[in-house]
Design brief:
Layout: H1 2-22, E1 26-30, E2 33-37, H2 39-72, H3 74-101, E3 115-116, E4 128-129, E5 132-133
Antiparallel strand pairs: 1-2, 3-4, 4-5
Helix pairs in contact: 2-3
Length: 135
């Protein structure tokens, strides 16, 4: 009974802190676009985390193989693109775990994605990984 009571108290404290940290909505202007900080941005970060954890590896490596094949040819795409895509897939999955665990907390000053694009569904090439350009 004590464990249940402690768990409920701990869960309530975590929930209260999460709501307190992520509640204030403040606009952030970046490159002509407006992003919001606060509860909506925190939930968006949690959604990115869920999609990256569940589909990051599955979607990232075939997408990278196709992109590299289109750019450099099929042999390059099937060799280097496969290795690069698997690395980006593992990275995207780990970033998803990070974003899901830390969704109520901003990354620095806002809730911007760690990876660009933020989800694996975008047709854009993965350009930035942990503030390092992907070549």
């Amino acid at each position: 009974m004590r464990i249940v009571a402690r768990s409920l108290v701990f869960g309530g404290v975590v929930l209260a802190l999460t709501a307190a940290v992520s509640w204030g909505e403040e606009p952030v202007r970046e490159n002509g676009a407006t992003r919001w900080n606060g509860a909506g941005a925190a939930l968006e970060k949690a959604g990115r985390g869920i999609s990256n954890v569940t589909l990051g590896f599955i979607v990232e490596w075939p997408k990278t193989v196709v992109r590299e094949s289109e750019t450099h040819g099929p042999v390059f795409g099937l060799t280097v693109g496969l290795i690069k895509g698997m690395g980006l897939g593992v990275g995207r999955t780990l970033v998803g775990v990070y974003e899901l665990v830390t969704f109520p907390l901003p990354n620095g000053s806002d809730y911007a994605p760690v990876l660009e694009p933020g989800t694996p569904f975008s047709t854009a090439r993965t350009e930035r990984f942990l503030d390092t350009p992907v070549r």
